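[job 0412] stage=complex_fold ligand=beta-D-fucopyranose status=START
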Amino acid sequence: MTHARHLPDGFLWGASTAAHQIEGGNTNSDWWEFEHSSIPLIKEPSGDACDSYHRWREDMDLLAGLGFTDYRFSIEWARIEPAPGEFSHAAIAHYRRMVEGARERGLRPMVTLHHFTNPRWFTERGGWAAAGSDELFARFLTAAAPVYATDVAHACTINEPNIVAVMATAQAEILSGKAVSFAENPPAPDGATTEALIRAHARAVETVKSLAPHVSTGWSLANMVCQPLPGAEDVAAAYRHPRLDVFLEAARGDDWLGVQAYTRTLIGPEGRLPVPEDAERTLMGWEYYPQALGHALRHSASVAPGTPLIVTENGIATADDTRRVHYTAGALESLAEAMDDGIDVRGYFHWSALDNYEWGRYAPTFGLIAVDRETFVRTPKPSAAWLGAAGRSRVLPTHA
Ligand code: FCB
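[job 0412] stage=complex_fold status=DONE, emitting structure tokens
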């Protein structure tokens, strides 16, 4: 029996984006460089993306108009610090205008301080694993403080460090000529990168708090929802630990922890299993499995007990918007059940506000809002109105 479930007071209700995936022309980032090398994982370059570096006002007007009360977006290190120690006042002012612009529209900004991309110079000097990376990240956050010093309640230090550590291994494998398949068998995370990211997060929390004590800080983890077949519990735990739990453990005691879930990963006695033959798949090739969100919340709460959770990403790549509504309703149902069981969830951000550059290609459309690839005209899909409306009614949307 479904009953109307009201969002708790202050519950964040928003959509997420990331700078590189929507801004366009991020030419000083390491990703721009990957996109113009001959890596097979890259099907097309990001180019103009959604031109949101110029059209962010339109994006925010739409989200606020749809009913959302929160917007998660990221600032781009490569623009703010184009060369080591050289900071762009113009780029800092740009992101500051975005924070103020969000507030003017009634959107509370959640600012992600690092979402996958690095300045080229940072990657050239060895990326996260190189000595002093935490220091450099803290120096960037100090320079960028005017962006978040006021009007920002939540800052996400690093998006999906557990995937960043996997990408570090992938990069090394690609450079040595190995074929890497993310969908079927993602490489194991790089240990040195993992340690460096945990250090960088602690350092970032300290830095942000020293400059803006009111900002509530956390980081967002990709929760792959490992589900063991009977008898494979230990194999699943061993698989999950370096890929997720070590990062969840590092979030203990943070102000909040970001939960990002899309699908599940089945684990058999020999390890990771492929998506079952008969399962519905999304445009990412992932199993359609809306309940992943509830599982991810429960697992996060069990490893980092007492840390409030915020869903910072959840969504589906599909060309059929009715499947987006169906998926999201299922995910929200699993979220409501977790909350009923006492899991402390403080907000939900859908991935993504816009159809955008999905790290190598545009085909997997995650957006609530479609974007014309030539004119950049934005067209909200029915799912956008359905999900946004809950920001006004404060009632959790259910299956239509
Ligand atoms: C997450 C990323 C985000 C987007 C979604 C689909 O891993 O944080 O940028 O690519 O997946």
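The chain has one domain: 5-222+239-263+289-396.
[job 0412] exit 0
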